[in-house]
Amino acid sequence: MAEATTPRLGRLERPALTGVLVREVVNFSSFWRSSTFSSTVEPTIYLLAFGFGFGSLVSRVGGFSYVEFVGTGTVATAVLFSSAFPAMFGTFVKYQFQRTYDAILAAPVDTEELVTAEALWIATRAGVYGCVPMLVAMVFGLNPSWGMLTVPLIAWLAGFGWAGFGIMVAGFASSFENFNYVVSAVLTPLFLVAGTFFPIDTLPTWAQTLAQLNPLYHCVELVRDAVFGFEGWADLAHAAALVAFGLIMWRIAIYAMERKLVD
Amino acid sequence: MSGELAIRLRGVVKRYGAITAVAGLDLNVPVGTCVGLLGPNGAGKSTTMRLLTAQSIADEGELEVLGFRLPSESKAARAQCGVVPQLDNLDVTLTVEQNLLVFTHLYRIGRAERREAIERALRMANLVDRREAKVNKLSGGMRRRLLIARALVHRPRLVLLDEPTVGLDPQVRQELWALIDALRSEGTTILMSTHYIEEAQRLADTVLIMSHGSAVAAGPPAELVLEHAGHEVLEVYGPPARLAEVESEAGAAGMRTRRTGTSISILGAEGNGHGFEGERRPANLEDVFVLLTGEEIA
């Protein structure tokens, strides 16, 4: 019989991941303009506002010119904005309003593959959009360096973790309103104490300790060191923190979405 | 695979908290036939459909689809199934063709066959001229046709249709019936849930009537009608008080009745009026449906 020879389908199969990715790529082709616009303009505004507004008061921070400091720091901001937010809102819309995930899960795709492919896609976008502030900063005087070539990779890695975070939040949320708590209580504080706009060593010790748990902080530090020179073990630790963040968020996101999608 | 069955359910139970949506359902869908799941809203039809794609996991019972045990081997079964959901979940900002393209990937059609699969689906759904149109510019009927075509790109052996014509005009409904009938004549196995009696009567080889999560009757539509409602029905009209009287008198005489809103239908009234005055008409599946699933809406 034909079905006796059909191989048992496994976990995390490439065709399933490809199927979900193709859907995202085809959809992206219809809205890439607006998405690219907001992902580019937002960090540029931050850069200009802080870089020139604040930069006129403080010319040097931690040994860098303020534009250099903020230009590298806002890479993490761009990553956050192009991963956590689309993951939260996009997942919820696709689940709740467009019922896209019902269609995908009726095909030979499991929740684990669906979540993984979505996170990979968002991470890839974050890897690209994350570089925008750095490129803008280069226009305003940031010097090129070889280490910059690793920035897309760092942005991708951090983006994967934030994508997992966003999908997880959407998986646990019962309504759009729930996102307000997450944005106010989690994302905004993390965003402000990540060393993006001011160095965290000006903060009290307890806040500095807490910052070690902030993935954005590790992203900011790693990007800055990539641009101005790696610092060995410290950067390996930052990279390890981002890898751990990514893995943990990825698994929790799968758990949350399985609960939501399969009853 | 057990004999010739594309779907085999035994004693399937699915509970949501205190609510039992499916309560010990047995279901056979023989290969090459069209089976209609007929039941009122809330009878458990949609839950049954979700169980078949492992989007719901049964609490008890055995489930087999195309010879694969569910939920453990569901993915292999899904690869050979096409699913038409009750609620439209097309990508509305994409074109007709792009929607189909995405599904050729999700259903793992090889690069060499992708083009032809899309063309075939477009022809089948009669959307060849609309291939470039965005889904949000299509009429309701076209969207439904696309939804069906999307489920057929990979030539599935089994197609699951969940309320395929719900909320559509009679004209559009007929169009879809023709499409489903064409599929059936090609030998595709179909399981279709519906609460439209005419739909089940026209398309299904076998009808399974569901009520409160389990099967209350199963068989070819004509046989079900004959068995439960006889050949002929006598419809007695009158004011509500009179109808209640007729109902109790006929009941006392051992006859089955059902309410038709404006009248009381006395079932199995062939050649025998029992003294009631009314209009005679052939018995139909609706008589059986109302008789077996109850007159009150829960």
Notes on the structure:
The complex is a heterodimer of chains A (263) and B (298). Chain A is an all-alpha fold and 263 residues long. Chain A has one domain. Chain A has helices at residues 2-5, 14-53, 66-97, 100-106, 111-129, 132-139, 151-172, 178-192, 205-211, 215-228, 233-261; strands at residues 60-61, 64-65. In chain A, strands 1-2 form a two-stranded antiparallel sheet. In chain A, helix 2 runs parallel beside helix 6 (132-139), helix 5 crosses helix 11 and helix 7 (151-172) runs antiparallel to helix 10 (215-228). Chain B is of the alpha/beta class. Chain B folds into two domains: 5-220, P-loop containing nucleotide triphosphate hydrolases (Rossmann fold), CATH 3.40.50.300; 231-282. Chain B is 35% helix and 27% strand. Chain B has helices at residues 45-52, 74-78, 96-106, 111-124, 140-150, 170-185, 197-203, 221-229, 240-252, 285-293; strands at 5-16, 19-30, 34-38, 60-65, 68-69, 81-84, 158-162, 189-194, 206-211, 214-219, 232-237, 257-259, 263-266, 279-282. A six-stranded mixed β-sheet of chain B has the order 6-7-8-3-9-10, sandwiched between helices. A four-stranded antiparallel β-sheet of chain B has the order 2-1-4-5. In chain B, strands 12-13-11-14 form a four-stranded antiparallel β-sheet, sandwiched between helices. In chain B, strand 12 (257-259) and strand 13 form a beta hairpin. In chain B, helix 5 packs parallel to helix 6 (170-185) and helix 8 crosses helix 10 (285-293).
